[in-house]
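Regression test attached.
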Amino acid sequence: MLRKRPNNLYKSRSSSDGSLSTDPHTNHNDHNCDDYDGSKGKTSNIPLLLIVFLGMIVGAIGVVEYWNPKSLQDFGHGGSVDSGGSVRGALTNGNGSDQVHVIFSTDCSAFQHWQSYLLAFSAYQVCGDYFKFFLVTLFVLMWIFEGETT
Amino acid sequence: MKQHDIGTIVRIASGCGEDEEEAAQKWHDEHIANVFGERYRIHFTPHFSSVKDSDGNVKGDYKFFNKPFGLRHWMANTNINDNDIVVLIDPDMIILTQLNGDFSSQRDVIVGNRKQEKFKVEHGSPFGQTYGFGAQWSTKIDLAKVAGEDSPSVGISRQNAFKYYPVGPPYLATARDMRNIAEKWSEFVPEVHKQYPYLLAEVRDFVWKDAFITEACILNVCSLELPPGKMFAYCVAAAHLKLAHQRVDHLMVSNVGAGGEGWPFVDEIIKDESTNVCEFATFPVSSKLHALPAVIHYCQRYMLEGELFSKRRFNTNFYSCDTPSLTVYDNDFGGDQKTELKGKRNAFMLCAITSMLNASLDHFKNNHCSR
């Protein structure tokens, strides 16, 4: 019932310069850099690349929405503080001053270092920061790709 | 929640020595803040965990004092808006869905057979995850001795003690309420600990011998375990401040045999014949098709088909460049029709935890290991 993890699962493309920082999502549609024939790129591919890039951005935004289906519909209540001091729509008020802080308590042992990293990672992917990273990585990939073709 | 509504994610680290603090800060800056962002912070506090006797002499070390005192220390040293929401969780939790103060979506909320009275975290309306200790925080403790004879907690009815206060992490409250709770929690916890110095493992047998019958147990949904005194102290503090909590069940899954947790969401996934529970639980998890519990609290042991995850046995140096990835489970892991419900719940936990660990390890390696 178990399978060993494939060696290439989530693994970033092998890069000769080691400069690419990738993550699981960026590799789903990855291709092998070594297969790329640079000579073909010398005809101008910039419009095509721009279209592809914009398509990836739109796709990524779609993924974000797929991931967080409530992100638009559930939080558009607007915000105000009434005279009684109760917070209404504290998470959505227009001035952005009300925030959610996630706190956890640890000692200083190694036992809780790995837990803290795991928790931070889970918050990172839930909060959407993961996708910011994803988009930045895409942008870097495209920038490098474009650089190689021109 | 929109992204800009996220505030800080703070690790409160208590009792670090000078060298430890320096090392922890460096590791945090390099591996967390520089990668995840500046909102991820570490806050150091003094050592709080010593228990003193009536003469002021240290008589023991109780690390769970760090939580109330650490929270109080952070709140006293951090400039946050009173209207902000503070979510207090445990370090052994994995966040699956966004934690926020909106509980108005019926699809994403479980309140059991209780009536949901509150739908948003507001001043005077904190929320908390149901824990299976019923009204015991009020019956096992001499409340007058802890909080004073005039404390509102002293006269609380057993019904209200059960209805509003047997909560644990994740706790959610406005910063103003949480600040007040932290003050009283810290004030009360030493005396509560003195009266009720039990830890989870110690009370397990005691509870069943004592056979304290709560509504939860009548409904066959009581947890096998009871909390340490720090959780009782939180309840006393909240009751003292008349901060009745809206108890919700969906914030956490932890004990595959317990009620009062978010298992109904997982069970819906299990029942869905078109969905494989392990595949569903594998990172990245989405709540698009099925609602999810907000966090996984991996404080138990999870076992199925000879596979085991226990945080106590886990490699503390997991996040390093030469750590191999964990075994990946097949999508049909736990999918055998003969596997009972608890087994399938174990499959959910094993698949979710290990895949999240693998994804986080990949992320670590991608950012910190040369290839």
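Expected vs. actual: identical. The radius of gyration of chain B is 21 Å.
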